[in-house]
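Consider the tokenized backbone below.
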């Protein structure tokens, strides 16, 4: 593959039901044919890994489960400056908030164009399967992440 122009990053824990949505989307996309310059990778549950993953690509699309106070399975797409604003309304499921990691990346000059595909969780108990609400929108989430990667916005 030539230089990576967009990277789809699945953030989450595969053992915590809906928190696995990010890694599962990345796995699905990585196992198929992606447009030239686009790659999909799993970041696991550590948002600090994002520093390395967003460096060197023109756009990062992060797929993550979140508590947004919506119906389970609700999908929201946030871009660049919209991302910190939404974190005033909900919390990440990680020990370190994604907004903090992205703010540090911007201050350190690592930041790129970033889109967040946030999915409202229904269940984050210990399970290796998605809840029915998130499973029902899995294909939609995957398609949105790919579309964000290839869009210029």
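A designed sequence for it:
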């Amino acid at each position: 593959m030539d230089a990576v122009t967009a990277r789809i990053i699945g953030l989450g824990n595969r053992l915590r039901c809906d928190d696995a949505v990010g890694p599962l989307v990345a796995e699905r996309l990585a196992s198929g044919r992606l447009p030239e310059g686009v790659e999909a990778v799993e970041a696991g549950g550590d948002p600090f890994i994002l520093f390395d993953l967003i460096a060197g690509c023109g756009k990062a699309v992060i797929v993550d489960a979140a508590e947004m106070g919506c119906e389970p399975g609700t999908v929201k797409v946030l871009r660049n400056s919209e991302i910190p604003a939404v974190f005033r309304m909900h919390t990440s499921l990680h020990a370190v908030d994604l907004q903090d990691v992205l703010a540090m990346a911007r201050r350190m000059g690592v930041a790129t164009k970033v889109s967040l595909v946030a999915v409202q969780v229904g269940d984050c108990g210990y399970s290796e399967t998605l809840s029915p609400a998130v499973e029902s929108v899995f294909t939609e989430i995957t398609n949105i992440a790919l579309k964000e990667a290839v869009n210029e916005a």
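The helical segments are 21-30, 50-54, 82-86, 98-107, 132-135, 138-150.
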